[in-house]
Protein 1
Amino acid sequence: MLLTEYDEELHINNEKDISYNKGLEQGLEQGRNEQLLESIKNLMTNLGLSAEDAMKSLGIEQANFDKYLKMM
């Protein structure tokens, strides 16, 4: 005996929501990374800071320095 009903439309809508939210989250993360990279470059250009000093000034954790250096 089946105690629950399967609602295919609800299931499909839930999958769409999950995919949408995942894509949105990835897009926001990409935007944050691009903005931080732009800020690093601006500090380097305008204040003559090294990449490392610019990242320190922005409060970027040292563990993430390589990530942004590779993006430059």
Protein 2
Amino acid sequence: MKSIIPKLYDVFIKEGYRPMGGYPAHRLFNIIAAQFTTFLKDGMLVGDFGLSLQEVQFLEGFTDYLNPGTILVVGNAHGWSTVALALMFPEASVIAVDIDSDGIAFTNGLARKNGLNITCISGRSPEDVSRIVRQQGLKTLDLILIDACHTVEAVENDFSAIHPYLNENSVILFHDLMDHKMVPGFVAILKKTGLYGKLLTRTTSGMGVAYQQVSPQLASYLDCFNDHPENYNHYRDQIEHLSGKHASGLN
């Protein structure tokens, strides 16, 4: 598999936006945000903190197992995740929804200049998602990334907006579940819908993934980034003992 990361960086660097992030927090004053992607432009930080470099690498692995025709990104910001997914899946139609008009114009400009199949649209989740999906002529969504407002209520509402458009092979990704204490919302979604899910404890933000069915090969790949709660909590306890500090448990 040829990595999309050099091209992803080049798309933004050509516009004067240098992707930053991917740094272990302990190297930068224990600031967790240092792990996630933002941009340096004219010596200043620009943009929200999106998928970490390591999470982009994790998602690249999906290209061995999935071939989505339609992708929806809920929460676009400056387009880092949107462009990454468009590069990973060049045959897919990638739709991104956000309320930031500057980010929308910037992302659509990146798409035009780089020949990417991206349409970034102004809208608010959950209320505008159904309208946008219908206007784009889509009947179903194959891959969804939810990375908008970071509250339990919001993540449940964002999921409710895309739920009618899922098919039996849809895969839904949730960013920042653990870091922003949204795991209860994720668990509620799984209980309400009967979908299978995994909390990806070894991703930078503690992502989650939900689905009705995936191939055994993709399930095995996901397991490499997932821990049984008992194992995670045992590991947490040992790290807590080593550090003398309280670590966040998985309950």
Protein 3
Amino acid sequence: MPTLNINGKDTSVDADSSTPILWALRDTLGMTGTKFGCGAALCGACTVHLDGAAIRSCVTPISAAASKKITTIEAVASDKVGLAVHNAWVAHDVVQCGYCQSGQIMSATALLKANKKPTDADIDAAMAGNICRCGTYARVRSAIHAAASSLA
């Protein structure tokens, strides 16, 4: 039985090592904040952090997470960058239907951890893999700029 470090806690997962992280989180562990969107790493709804990098959990097997740290939307606000992104999302009324937002927030948090003063082009590049059917892209960009400013 593989053991994964999820949100700072070592957790045994009763799943085959080829199981995508997404399904281990949702089906085995009941952590439903990370969403299934496409199953092909094209939409970004399933984004989590693996050692701080934004990855698509729908195509990443749990074997790839051995000896690494997985951070999910359930814990992203436990650090100051994730909390700043969360607060900016609320202040800028980014969420409409909300389905893609966990992935959007995870990607935005990874961006701001890597780049404290992103340009519009930096934001667009980092968020390009996250699809929002509601079209809140302008608000996403504004919220990321606001989060960056609050951290400066």
